[in-house]
């Protein structure tokens, strides 16, 4: 999963909220970790700063 825009980032936040704080092992936990990793990559790539300048 890759997050490239602030809209995708906001959608990821909403999906994490829907999954909850600590999803049980299985597909939901895998999705939680995948989204979390993509968010960290977005936040540290500089893309987040580009989106903030809009």
Question: What does this protein look like?
Answer:
- About 70% of the residues lie in helices and about 0% in strands.
- It is built from 3 helices and no strands.
- The chain is mainly alpha-helical.
Short key terms for the protein model shown above:
54 residues; 3 helices
What's this entry about, in short?
The protein has three helices and no strands. The chain is mostly helical.
- Fraction of residues in β-strands: under 5%
**What characterizes the major β-sheet?**
none
What is the end-to-end distance?
A: 24 Å
How many beta-strand elements?
A: 0
Q: Please identify the structural class as seen in this structure.
A: mainly alpha
Low-confidence stretches: none
Order of helices and strands: HHH
Shape: elongated
Radius of gyration: 12 Å
| Tally of DSSP helical segments | 3
Average pLDDT score: 89
- Give the oligomeric state of the chains in this entry, treating copies of one chain as homo and distinct chains as hetero: single chain
Give the proportion of residues in helices: over 70%
Protein topology:
Blueprint (H helix, E strand, L loop, with lengths): L5 H14 L7 H19 L1 H6 L2
Helix pairs in contact: 1-2
